[in-house]
Amino acid sequence: MTEQQNIPGQVQPKMPADEHRMDPAPDYTPRHPGVGKLKGKRAIVTGGDSGIGRAVSVLFAREGASVGIIYLDEHKDAEDTLKLIAAEGAEGFSVSADLGRRDEAFRAVGELVGQLGGLDVLVNNASMQFEQTDLRDITEEQLRRTMDSNVMNYFFTTQAALDHLPDGAAIVNTASVNAFKGNDTLVDYATSRGAASAFSRSIAKQLAPRGIRVNAVAPGPVWTPFIPGSLPENKVEDFGSHVPMGRAGQPWEIATSYLFLASDDGNYFTGQTLHPNGGTIVGS
After folding, report:
1. Domain residues of the chain, as ranges?
2. Class of domain 37-274
3. In angstroms, rounded to a whole number, what is the distance separating the alpha carbons of residues 256 and 260?
4. Is the peptide bond before 24 cis (omega within 30 degrees of 0)?
5. pLDDT tens for residues 128-175?
6. In 3D, which of 229, 233, 138 has the Cα closest to residue 191?
7. Cβ atoms of residues 239 and 231 within 8 Å
8. pTM assigned to the model
C-alpha cells in the first residue's frame, strides 16, 4: 500500500515543468518483475520524459518493449528516462518535437519508427494545463496552446502513426477525471480532455475492422510535473488529499492501466476508459 507523501508547497515557472526539480520525486518504479507482456513490441510514448509518460515507458521496457519517447524541451528528464529504459535491458530512443504542429508530429513519429524498426503501440500522453479562475481570463493564446498540446497533438500523432501501425496494434490515450467531473479552474484543460475521450471512442470504431484497439486512461490527481508547473503553491501542498483514498496517486500506479490496455490482457477492450483516480466516482 502506498501512503500519502508529505508534499511541500512548490512551483516551477514553466509548463511543461521538470521532474528532476520536484520534491519529493515522483515514484515511477514498477513493482513487479516483467513477464514479457510486450516482448518484441515497439512503442512510442509522447510526453515520455516525465510523469505518467516516464512510468509507462519504464514499465513497457520492463515488459520487453523497445520504447521511443517524444518530448517538448525537457532534455534532462528525457535523458534520465532513456537511462531508466536501458536499465531494464530495453532499447530506448527520444526525439524533441512540438506535436501540436502536424509537420513536427510526422517528423518525430517517422524518426522513431525508423529507429525502432516498426511500431505496435502508440501512447498519446503529452499535454499541458494552465489554471484560471475566471473564464474571461483564458486568453486566445492560452486556449490555442492548450488545444494544440492536448487535442491537435493527439490527432497529428495518431495520423502519423497509422501509416506504420499494423492490424491488431494498440493505441492508448490519456484523458482525465476532469473530463468527467469538470473543473472550475481548469476549464480549457477539462474541455481538451473531454475531446480526448471522444477522440478515443470515435477512432476505436473507425479502426475496429483492422483489429486496432483504442482506449483511454483518465487519471485523477497524480504527482507529476503538471502540478508544480500549473498550480499555486498553496494548492500543491498536500495535493490530492481531497479524494476518497486521501492522497495523490504516483505515476507507477497509473502506468499499470496503460500496460493492461496495450497488452493482450486488454484484448477485448476498445473504446473504453480506465479510471485510476483514488476513488472518485464518475460516469465512464
Report:
1. 37-274
2. alpha beta
3. 6
4. yes
5. 999 999 999 999 999 999 999 999 999 999 999 999 999 999 999 999
6. 138
7. yes
8. 0.95
